[in-house]
Design a protein that fits this description.
Layout (H helix, E strand, L loop, with lengths): L6 H23 L15 H21 L20 H21 L4 E2 L6 E2 L2 H21 L7 H16 L14 E6 L9 E7 L2 E6 L6 E5 L1 H8 L11 E4 L1 H9 L4
Parallel strand pairs: 3-6
Antiparallel strand pairs: 1-2, 3-4, 4-5, 6-7
Protein name: TIGR03083 family protein
GO molecular function, one term: metal ion binding
Organism: Pseudonocardia ammonioxydans
Length: 259
C-alpha cells in the first residue's frame, strides 16, 4: 500500500477515526473507570482511556513540531484527562482526535517521525484510527459489550498492522522461519482480494501482499475475528478462527509480533 495517501483516502480515514473514537468514548462514558481490561494486563479502563487520548495528542504534537525523533509521551501537553470523571474523560478523548486531525490538515504531506521511519503527517490518521479501533475492542471485552466492526475496516486494520510489522528491521527471532508462509483468509464475501493476505519471511523481516495461495499455515475467519486474532485479543486456538496446516507457524507468529 502507498505510504503517501491521497486526499480522498486521508479524508475517509479521518471520518472513520472520528466515528470509531466516538464509539470508544461513548463506551467509556458509561463504564466504571476501575474495570480491569483483560486484553491489556495491568490496565483499567482509566488507563486505557489515557493511553488513547494521550496517543492522539502525542501524534499531533509531533506533527506540529515537525519531529524527526520520537517524542517522550510523558512530555505531551494535556496528556492526562483534566478530571477522573467518565463524561469529562470522554470529551477529552474526543478532543484529542480532533487535535490530531487539525494538526494533519495544516500540511498532510509534511514529513514526521513514525515507528517505521519518516512518513507524511497524514500517515498518522490511519495509525490512530486503528489504535482507537483495537482499544474499543479492549473496552468492549472488559465491559461485556458487543464488539462490531465493518468488515472493510477490520480488513484494513489487518493490512495496517502487517505494514507496521513489515517496517521493522530484520531480527533473529523473525515471526516466520525463512521460506515459511502464512495465509490469512477473511470469510466475508464482500472483501475480495482485500480480504486475503500472503505473509512470508523476507531475510529476517516480514513481507506480505494481498492474494490467495497455499501457506504452511492458513488462518480463516471473519475479518473482525482475524483482526482480533492477529492482535492477540483472542487466543490462537479460539473457535472463531480456523487454523489449517501447521498450527505452530501461527502460534510462533503471534508470539513474535507483539507491539
Amino acid at each position: 500500500m502507498s505510504e503517501t495517501p491521497d486526499r480522498s483516502t486521508v479524508d475517509r480515514h479521518a471520518g472513520v477515526l472520528m466515528s470509531e473514537n466516538d464509539r470508544l468514548a461513548a463506551l467509556l462514558e458509561s463504564a466504571d473507570p476501575a474495570v480491569e481490561v483483560p486484553t491489556c494486563p495491568g490496565w483499567t479502563l482509566r488507563q486505557l482511556a489515557r493511553h488513547v487520548g494521550r496517543g492522539h495528542r502525542w501524534a499531533a504534537q509531533m506533527i506540529t513540531s515537525g519531529a524527526t525523533e520520537r517524542l517522550d509521551p510523558r512530555e505531551v501537553a494535556g496528556g492526562k484527562p483534566p478530571a477522573d470523571d467518565p463524561p469529562v474523560v470522554a470529551r477529552w478523548l474526543r478532543d484529542g482526535a480532533a487535535e490530531l486531525l487539525d494538526a494533519v490538515a495544516r500540511d498532510p504531506q509534511a514529513p514526521v517521525w513514525t515507528f517505521i521511519g519518516p512518513r507524511p503527517a497524514a500517515w498518522w490518521v490511519r495509525r490512530r484510527l486503528h489504535e482507537a479501533t483495537v482499544h474499543r475492542a479492549d473496552a468492549a471485552i472488559a465491559t461485556g459489550a458487543g464488539f462490531r466492526i465493518a468488515p472493510e475496516l477490520a480488513a484494513d486494520g489487518v493490512s495496517e498492522w502487517l505494514g507496521l510489522l513489515a517496517g521493522r528491521p530484520a531480527a533473529d527471532d523473525a515471526p516466520l522461519a525463512e521460506g515459511a508462509t502464512l495465509h490469512l483468509h477473511a470469510t466475508d464475501d464482500e472483501l475480495g482480494a482485500e480480504g486475503e493476505w500472503m505473509i512470508r519471511a523476507d531475510g529476517g523481516r516480514v513481507g506480505w501482499e494481498h492474494g490467495h495461495g497455499k501457506g504452511d499455515a492458513a488462518v480463516r475467519g471473519t475479518a473482525a475475528d482475524l483482526l482480533l486474532g492477529v492482535l492477540r485479543r483472542i487466543p490462537a486456538d479460539d473457535e472463531r478462527i480456523q487454523v489449517l496446516g501447521d498450527p505452530q507457524v501461527w502460534r510462533t507468529w503471534l508470539a513474535r509480533t507483539e507491539y
